[in-house]
Amino acid sequence: MIVDLLKRPDGLLEPVGDCLRKVPAGSLVKANLTRPNHQGLHKKLLATMRFAWDNLPEGHRFSSYDEFRRAMLIQAGEVEYLPLMDGTFAVQAKSLKWSAMDGMERERVLDKLCVVIMDKILEYETNPEELERLIREHGARMGVIW
Q: Would you say residue 68 lies in a domain?
């Protein structure tokens, strides 16, 4: 059985609705707690990457969006090392398993991508707040709102 719980300000977890009505009072219940995926952060990631793609300076062209996405992740340090037969390693972009990441890790990846955008893509000085505004506006024009 899956039960939705709401954490109250006093720290107690309260079931949403009457989903536990069949469980007798005083019964011990074992639970595996997870947080639901935050779709807003995923939309923000997609809007951030699209903003970067649409603002690439001349001379920074990639053969595909997927190649660009991998390059951004490598530039942000989100890498895995693939061992090769000769004992060396190849660097490749990490696969972002969004559903396996917690909120703090998602924010960390987004922050690192924003630093890459500010340092490597935008041809003018900006700050994180201004970049956030630009990405929101760009996302809204694409119909992506988080």
A: yes
Q: Quick one: how far is CA 132 from the chain centroid?
A: 14
Closest CA to 48 of 115, 1, 99, 98: 115
Task: Residue 82: give the domain boundaries.
Answer: 39-142
Residue pair 123/57 in contact (Cβ under 8 Å)? The answer is yes
Decide: 113 and 72 in contact? Cβ < 8 Å: yes
Q: Tens-digit pLDDT profile for the chain (146 aa)?
A: 777 788 888 888 888 888 788 888 888 888 877 666 667 777 888 889 999 999 898 887 899 999 999 999 999 999 999 999 999 999 999 988 877 777 778 888 889 999 999 998 988 888 889 998 999 898 888 777 76
Q: Which residues contact 33 (CB under 8 A, 6 or more apart)?
A: 5
1 lies in a domain?
Answer: no
